[in-house]
Amino acid sequence: MTERKVMRVLSGETVTPPPVWLMRQAGRYLPEYRETRRQAGSFLDLCYNPELATEVTLQPIRRFGLDAAILFSDILVIPDGLNRNVTFSEGKGPAMDPIDAAGIDKLDAGNVLSHLSPVFETVSRLRKALPGETTLLGFCGAPWTVATYMIAGHGTPDQAPARLFGYQERGAMEKLLALLADISADYLVEQIDAGADAVQIFDSWAGVLGEREFEEYAIKPVARIVSSVRARRPSAKIIAFAKGAGYLLKDYRQKTGADAIGLDWSVPLSFARELQKDGPVQGNLDPMLMIAGGKSLDDGIDAVLQALGQGPLIFNLGHGITPQADPENVGRLVKRVHGFGDRG
Question: Which of 24, 84, 224, 336 is catalytic?
């Protein structure tokens, strides 16, 4: 079988040079993405169109030779499957019907997987279309992050509506997180069965939680997903990314059961080295460097490689590429990471 370097790292190996992929590598910074997006109509139409979703997933692989492709979709397809009337508008981001405790009691997950069947078709097409050495990653949003959008009905700077809801309606919050965890586990199993080599759980809003809430809202639901997926697919490889979690990442891997942990750019490299002693890490270049370029970009890449390149590392950004990123800088990054062993 063709070697997939990301999978070797997820098994605990140190690979030199380390494999590299970038969160949101298929996106608005690429002119070919913008053209395909126009063809699709709405953003959700693009997510649910297997032909076009396959095309935008492949675009950065063709252009840059990255070591992994990540399914093009969105974390909010699950609330969309729960009939929350999800919409995306340019400049404003996602919106949906906000949910309360009574609405949580009425949620019906019965049709979610059938609603998401186009996503599984996309995964299947991708595995056939990708080069044999390219790892295919599936993903879902972590229950807490998905819940923040469902409760507020939109994104907020500090997720105050969801945090307040958790204090005032603790039972309803726990019920929502458990439901989302169970749906997400089913969703990831289907992606693996369709051809995904590994999956990532995105907890983009973990960083707004205090210590107790992090345990209840960020760790327990993700551990529930990992446990459920592994019960059915014991060899599944899972990356968990809790953005902004800081010191709370110390035992995040152990408590969730994830194979690898994603690190955002605010995680000190000295702390990242400590975390790497327990297993693979992924990260953690500041996405702003994809705009800045030049020596700043080179120095940032080298700092991550020098700190983490002697252990199991998947090189990535500390969050997604922004629309302002220069594609030339992405090419520069991939070339520099892939040349790491040559520079010593």
Answer: 24
Per-residue pLDDT of the chain (344 residues; tens, 9 = 90+): 578 999 999 999 999 999 999 999 999 999 999 999 999 999 999 999 999 999 999 999 999 999 999 999 999 999 999 999 999 987 788 999 999 999 999 999 999 999 999 999 999 999 999 999 999 999 999 999 999 999 999 999 999 999 999 999 999 999 999 999 999 999 999 999 999 999 999 999 999 999 999 999 999 999 999 999 999 999 999 999 999 999 999 999 999 999 999 999 999 999 999 999 999 999 999 999 999 999 999 999 999 999 999 999 999 999 999 999 999 999 999 999 999 987 54
Q: What is the 3-state secondary structure (H, E, C) of the chain?
A: CCCCHHHHHHCCCCCCCCCECCCCCCCCCCHHHHHHHHHHCCHHHHHCCHHHHHHHHHHHHHHHCCCEEECCCCCCHHHHHCCCCCEEECCCEEECCCCCHHHHHHCCCCCHHHHCHHHHHHHHHHHHHCCCCCEEEEEEECHHHHHHHHHHCECCCCCHHHHHHHHHCHHHHHHHHHHHHHHHHHHHHHHHHHCCCEEEEEECCHHHCCHHHHHHHHHHHHHHHHHHHHHHCCCCEEEEEECCCHHHHHHHHHHHCCCEEECCCCCCHHHHHHHHCCCCEEEEECCCHHHHCHHHHHHHHHHHHHHHCCCCEEEEECCCCCCCCCHHHHHHHHHHHHCHHHHC
- Is 8 part of the annotated catalytic residue set? no
**What global pTM score does this model have?**
0.97
Is there a catalytic annotation at residue 149? yes
29, 33, 48, 149: the catalytic one is 149
Instruction: Please identify which of the residues 28, 127, 233, 273 carries the catalytic annotation.
Output: 28
State yes or no: is 28 an active-site residue.
yes
Is 29 an annotated catalytic residue? no
Annotation says 24 is catalytic: yes
